[in-house]
Amino acid sequence: MTYLHTFRGRASPLLLAFILSLSGCGGDGGTSSSSFSSSSSSSSSSSSSSSSSSSGGSNHACPGVAANAWQGTPIELPGRVEAENFDLEGFYDSTPQNQGGAYRDTAVDIAAINGGYAVVNTDAGEYLEYTVNVAAAGEYQVVAKVGAAGAGRTLELSQCDTHLLTVAVPYSGEDAAFRTIALGAIHLEPGLQVIRLSVGDLPGAKIDWLHIGNYTGELSAPTPVAFGTMLDSAQQIQAARTFAQNTLRPGASGWRAKGDQRRSYYFPEVNAQVGYRLVVPSSWDGVSALPLVVFLHGAGNDENSYVDQNNRQMARLAEQHGFILASALGYGGAYGTMLRLPAVFGQPQEAANMLASITQERRAAEALSERDVINVIELVRGEYPINDKAMFLTGHSMGSGGTWYIGAKYSSYWAGLAPMSGPFVQEQGYPWENLSTMPLLVTEGTGATPSLTGSRVLRDWLKAREFDVTYKEVNADHAGMVPLVLPDVFQFFANLVP
Length: 498
Ligand SMILES: [Ca+2]
Ligand SMILES: [Ca+2]
Fold this sequence. Notes:
It is a single chain. By secondary structure, the protein is of the alpha/beta class. 26% of the residues lie in helices and 27% in strands. The protein contains ten helices and 21 strands. An eight-stranded mixed beta sheet has the order 14-15-17-16-18-19-20-21, sandwiched between helices. Strands 1, 2, 4, 7, 9, 10 and 12 form a seven-stranded mixed beta sheet that branches. Helix 4 (233-247) crosses helix 7 (360-383) and helix 5 runs parallel beside helix 10 (481-496). The two termini are 27 Å apart. The structure holds calcium ion (CA) (2 copies). Residues 93-95, 109, 121-123, 126 line the site of one calcium ion. One calcium ion (CA) is lined by residues 93, 95, 97-99, 107, 109.
């Protein structure tokens, strides 16, 4: 009902009630009042009620009226929905002028872009409707070409108040460069009908088009991490998954054991047993999917150091919150990232200097270090039932750099990240688009002189772009801050478990 104000001056309450009852929807009609009056005669064969008792979730398509489509021509689906080709009556825009100044003389803000037009200056509450003609009932892939200069922007695809899909618009830099992203599938029934695209709570996303149906074009590749290895994340996950399947021995001694365990696995590429620490809640029932916290240690330490310190505080926190905790070694490197002091956030020249001095040997070592982390994750996922909507990554110092690096590069794993005292990430050459909706807890110690300034610059940069960041400082030095913030880290993750 949030958009009822958009009918102001366009429909009487009586007519509105008529629309609501006839469309069979709980809220605002997908078609405007002016176009609806002609539909009773022209759309009797539309799909709106043709399947009302069959499959669920997709039976609420508002009837479409061909004459209300842009240029009187419904958009044929499967096909391309150009954002600027919205219906003659079906739209709401919060500013009366076309602020982009292009293409159509309505309130909707349309800008000329390379090769066409896009809807820009979107704002909360705005929507666009499209009269489409769907060829056949089925699942239709959705791809969008969108961009935003801020994080957390969303668009919603719906039909007559039935939610179809949320478009999480990636943060795509200061210029809100367009990115082409796959969004999953929606179910559509055949016939003439109206699809609505609504703007979420935050303003400024822009959209070129939606493709609904089989898409054969290019998708935008993730931004490669300029300060990391050349490993491909999707390939690496697959390789580690295969490795885990070939390595694990279901039912062997210790299989799915509970409690605090020092583990190791044979890593063929380094011809060695590589350790990892695993803490499994003693309260686990042996069946339920467990939330997972992966921890990355700081330089000069190993997979056990932080788990054991302060009377096993980290292990106790995992136990207390019911998390399985996996602490990786990151064999022989820094988890794949090349950044360390003084290359903190906001110091791109320091980062460039550091990268210029990286040897091939170091790159090779980092690739192994990164692979070790992914191996451990897949070994744990292969042995234990893991709630894949509740996987979290944290680390300290060098492991904070690893958290930024592994966190964004392998973002499909994670439901939240908590880097501690180590702003080892840069604005350029980093897939910030992967963190557009990622909850972040960034912590720092006021006595951690070399990293404090970078962490504050990073905090301000993230907040200015509306990333989902919580920032906390404690009065301690670089090492002393860890026991002070660890309870916050685990509580932060616990709050994100679905
Ligand atoms: Ca406008
Ligand atoms: Ca607008």
